[in-house]
Design brief:
Layout lengths: L1 H22 L6 H16 L7 H19 L3 H19 L6 H13 L1 H9 L3 E2 L2 E2 L1 H27 L1 H25 L5 H18 L6 H7 L17 H10 L5 H35 L8 H6 L2 H18 L10 H33 L3 H25 L4 H20 L3 H11 L8 H5 L6 H6 L23 H21 L7 H10 L6
Antiparallel strand pairs: 1-2
Organism: Pedobacter petrophilus
Protein name: DUF4173 domain-containing protein
Keywords: Membrane, Transmembrane, Transmembrane helix
Length: about 525
């Protein structure tokens, strides 16, 4: 145990040095891959971490996300990197965890408690017959008071401007004092770089030093995937029963309360099915077949799309409410389940309508991140409805939904990170420039990865009038020369950034763009 603590603390110190070396004044690129290889290696060599199949799967998933950062270097790939790293850390130190969400929560808890974890490990260090436990016993007594003082100082500073001024003055004086001491002993020390190194130690410690409290893991172990009928005692009443009892007094028995809930559910689902049927009939008759865009086309497609998506989420919430407990086992629940399944099918039809609206918008105005987002969110809603169906049909628990959907979302996050969306959007819109209303301003707002594509098609970067009769408001159109100048400025900014970047910022997309424009790094 002691040797293990020593090694992990040394690894955290080395990780701080590596962090400072890789990330100081650099962009996130191949440095993330190198840092991940270090974290994966140290975690693998930790004897207390089981090298299970789950550990290997999530380790490879994170390594895959790190490679995607180097290959695509998109915001989505970087987000996938951080999420997969936290999931891997959560799973590594809590391998009985079964869901992605619980792994994320465990990892975040471990990162938050980094000071406590570091002190715990430091107290186990021994050099010969000398150990550090007595030294850190005092820290244990002052740790919580210090945190409390910092917390309330922030609150009081936010409430009183004069108090905040005094606090700022004191902190500035303390900082200047330590900066002077550091410069006295180390004349060439870069203070900002030193604090960056300290940040690296803290982050690395948070990833490597396990939190000994297994609260999240133990809490999740109590969760089951299969619903069981709960026989309530005389004094154990459901919340729904208590609500009914408030209005009906003691006239209802527990069985009647369940029957009342069943009748309420049937009435609710009949009414909701009729309501959604009317909406779906309108959409199918006006949108699915023979749709012809007219004035107000943009507004007609935009209007209500967010509300429809929200309604689908609420639909799943209503189903989960009614099928949360013993109603699943009620002898007459077949009718209620049939109505619920019908409503799920109608919600799928509603999702198809949303997809058709989005498809029309893409057809006439091209791709954007938001329109792709609608497609992705619609896919997630369909998956959500499918798992809700399985939950009702097979009498599964809410934990089952979290587990399945968490895994599916994690897989889709990695899968969507494979695509370079900015480049895909630019290529698609420019290839359809004769068919869509090309938004040159939007294309020029995309990342530097699209610069070679835009440069190849710079003649297409001009205002194009709508291909349909629409009354949407558009930005004031500019001339082709204006957009050409804007593109040249973007290329110039990219050239400056790329020449100043170090090797740690290398990624495939920047390298391709630099090769296209014949730019070389100066470092």
């Amino acid at each position: 145990m002691k040797n293990k603590s020593n090694h992990l603390l040394l690894a955290s110190l080395f990780g701080g040095l590596l962090f400072s070396f890789l990330f100081w004044e650099e962009r996130l690129a191949i440095n993330l891959l190198i840092y991940s290889i270090f974290i994966l290696t140290v975690t693998y060599l930790n004897p207390e971490v089981s090298k299970s199949k789950k550990f290997k799967i999530y380790g490879l998933a994170h390594l895959f996300s790190a490679v995607l950062v180097v290959v695509n270097n998109t915001d989505l790939s970087i987000a996938a990197y951080y999420i997969s790293l936290l999931v891997f850390i959560g799973i590594s130190h809590n391998q009985q965890i079964r869901s992605v969400f619980a792994a994320l929560l465990a990892a975040i808890l471990q990162m938050i408690t980094t000071p406590f974890n570091a002190i715990t490990n430091l107290s186990k260090i021994s050099v010969g017959n000398f150990n550090m436990k007595p030294v850190f016993r005092l820290i244990k007594y002052i740790f919580i008071p210090v945190i409390a003082v910092i917390f309330f100082t922030v609150l009081y500073a936010a409430a009183n401007a004069l108090f905040a001024h005094y606090v700022e003055t004191i902190l500035t004086s303390i900082f200047n004092f330590f900066e002077g001491v550091l410069h006295f002993f180390f004349k060439d020390l870069d203070v900002a770089r030193f604090f960056h190194f300290c940040l690296g130690i803290v982050l690395t410690s948070g990833l490597l030093l396990a939190f000994l409290n297994k609260t999240v893991q133990n809490a999740e172990l109590k969760a089951t995937e299969q619903l069981n009928r709960v026989k309530l005692g005389a004094k154990q009443k459901t919340l729904w029963y208590l609500v009914i009892e408030t209005f009906a007094g003691s006239l209802l028995t527990r069985k009647m309360a369940l029957k009342t809930e069943y009748i309420t559910g049937v009435i609710s689902f009949v009414a909701l099915n009729l309501l959604l049927l009317l909406l779906n009939v309108i959409d199918i008759s006006t949108l699915w077949f023979g749709y012809k865009p007219a004035g107000g086309f943009s507004g007609a497609l935009h209007e209500g799309t967010n509300s429809l998506i929200f309604s689908i989420i609420m639909a799943m919430a209503v189903i989960l409410y009614f099928f949360r407990g013993n109603l699943n086992f009620y002898s007459k629940s077949k009718t209620l389940k049939t109505l619920a399944f019908t409503w799920m099918i109608q919600n799928v039809i509603l999702i198809i309508s949303v997809l058709i609206k989005d498809g029309y918008y893409i057809e006439f105005y091209g791709l954007t991140h938001k329109r792709i987002g609608v497609l992705v969110f619609s896919l997630l809603c369909i998956i959500g409805l499918a798992t809700v169906y399985a939950k009702v049909a097979k009498q599964k628990t809410l934990f089952y939904l979290f587990k399945i959907n968490g895994s599916v979302w994690f897989i889709l996050l990695l899968a969507f990170s494979v695509i370079n969306w900015d480049v895909a959007i630019a290529k698609y819109n420019l290839s359809k420039s004769e068919e869509i209303s090309l938004d040159a301003d939007y294309l020029l707002s995309l990342s530097d990865k699209t610069l070679p594509v835009l440069d190849k098609h710079r003649s297409k970067l001009h205002y194009t009038s709508p291909k349909i009769n629409d009354d949407r408001e558009t930005a004031k159109p500019q001339t082709a020369d204006f957009y050409g100048n804007q593109l040249d400025k973007r290329i110039g900014y990219f050239k400056e950034r790329y020449e100043e970047a170090g090797w740690a910022s290398w990624n495939l997309q920047d390298w391709k763009a630099a090769a296209y424009f014949k730019i070389k790094q100066s470092k």
